[in-house]
Amino acid sequence: MSEDLDFLQGSSIMSTSFQDADNQENILRPKFLKDFQGQPRIKENLGVFIKAARERGEALDHVFLIGPPGLGKTTLASIVANEMGSEIRMTSAPALDKPKDLAGILTNVSENSVFFIDEIHRLKPALEEMLYIAMEDFEIDWVIGQGPSARTMRIPLPHFTLIGATTKAGMVSSPLQTRFGINCRIDFYDETELSNIIRRSASIIGVQIDDEAVLLLAKCSRGTPRIANRLLRRFRDFAEVNGNGVIDANIVYKSIKNLGIDLNGLEEQDRNILRTIIEFYGGGPVGAETLSISVGEAIESLEDFYEPYLIQKGYLKRTPRGRMVTAKAYELLHMEDKIPYSIKNDNLQGTLF
Ligand code: ADP
Asked: Which of 37, 75, 192 for a ligand 1 pocket mutation test, highest count of atoms within 8 Å of Cβ?
C-alpha cells in the first residue's frame, strides 16, 4: 500500500487509553438507558430514535452532546452503542492531529457503529472539513501525490453515527453543528437524581451509606455525577479509617471539612474567584482571561468547571462586558457592606420583574 493510503490500515490513535485512564469511572458507568439516571427528555427521545433506527436496520443519525464536564456525555455515547448493539470507537479532538489520523478511523469503522469525538470544539479546520463530507455523504476525499500530478480519490465509508461532545457549544462552527440530526443539552442533576446515582454507585463499590448521608452528598456534588462518585470514594476512605465503614452524616461533615468544600459543593477556589472579582474589580465586569490570571486558574477550568456551577447557583453572571458577581456572592462571603449600588439595584430589578 502506498504511503498516501497507509491510513487505511488503521490508526494508533484509537487506543483504549481514553477509557483505561479512569478505570473506577468505567465500573460505575451505566451501560443501558434504563440505568442512566435523570435527563428524562434526553432518555426518552434517544430511546425512540434508537428503536426506530434499529428497526430500520440503519445507523442512528449523528448526535451532538453539549454540557459541562462529568454530566454523562461519554456515558451516553457508550449507551447509544450498547443500545444499538454496535461497536464504539472513541477519541478526542486534540488527539487528532492530521487529516490522516481522522481518515484512519473513518475508513476503519464498521457499518452502523458509533464514533465518539470528545471536545469536538477543538477539531482542526482541515479535519472539520473532512468530517462534513463524511457525515453527510459517508465518503472522504483523499489527495494522492503532490504538485501537478496530485489527484483526488473519493473513498466510500461505512454508515456510522458520529457522536460529538463539547463543553462549549458556542465554539463549534455552525456548518458542523447543523450536520448533527440529534442535539442533546445535558443539564446539572437535581438532588433526587444525584441521590439515585449515589445509591447505585455505593452498591456497586460495596459501601454502606445511610439516607441522610446520601442527601448531604447529593447537595455537595455540584449537580455533577462524576463529583458525586468521586466524593463517595473519598467518604468511603474516611468511613473506613475514622469510622466503622458506614458513611453517615458525621462522616460526611468531617470529610467535607477536611476536603475544603461546603454543603453547596463550593470549594475554596470558588470563593476565591468571587472574592477576587469583588476585591480587585469592584464586583465586575472582568474579562475571563484577566480573571484566570488573577486567580491562577487555567481559563479552560475556569470556564468549564467553576463558572457554570457559580452561574447556576446565582453567584455569578456572564455579561457581554465580562463576569460580574451578584448580591448573593457578597452574602456568601459576608461582604454585604461592600455591595455597590449598581449590583444591589440589579438584584432588586431581578426580584421585581
Ligand atoms: P462527561 O463525558 O460528560 O465528562 P462521563 O460520561 O464521563 O461525563 O460521566 C462521568 C461519570 O459520571 C461516569 O463514570 C458515570 O458513572 C457517571 N454518570 C454520568 N451521568 C450519569 C447518569 N445519568 N447516571 C449515572 N451515572 C452517571
From this structure: 75
Give the span between the Cα atoms of 62 and 46, in whole angstroms. 11
Q: Could you give the CA distance from residue 5 to residue 334 in angstroms, rounded to a whole number? A: 64
pLDDT digits (tens, 9 = 90+) for 11-61: 433 222 333 435 677 889 999 999 999 999 999 999 999 999 999 999 999
Ligand 1 center to 75 CA (angstroms): 5
Closest CA relative to residue 240, chosen from 191, 207, 200: 207
Tell me the pairing of strands 113-118 and 322-325: unpaired
* Residue with grid cell 491562577, as numbered in its chain: 296
* Percentages (nearest 5) of helix, strand, coil residues in the chain: 55, 15, 30
Residue 77 φ then ψ, to 5°: -60, -45
- The answer to whether 226 is a known catalytic residue is yes
CA–CA distance from 271 to each of 204, 230, 289, 306, 315 (Å)?
A: 34, 21, 18, 10, 10
Q: Does the annotation count 224 as an active-site position?
A: no
Q: Report which protein residue has its CA nearest ligand 1's atom 15.
A: 29
Ligand 1 centroid, distance to 69 Cα (angstroms):
9
Long-range CB contacts (within 8 A, 24+) of 346-353: none
Q: Is 313 marked active-site?
A: no
Residue type, 197: I
How many contiguous H segments (helices) and E segments (strands) does the chain have?
17, 9
Whether pLDDT at 353 is above 50: no
| Euclidean distance between CA atoms 286 and 77, whole angstroms | 36
Residues ≥6 apart with Cβ < 8 Å to 47:
33, 83
- How many whole angstroms from 343 Cα to the centroid of ligand 1? 36
Q: pLDDT (tens digit, 9 = 90+) per residue, 152-179?
A: 889 999 999 999 999 998 899 999 999 9
CB 91 within 8 A of CB 209: no
**How far apart, in whole angstroms, are the C-alpha atoms of residue 290 and residue 272?**
14
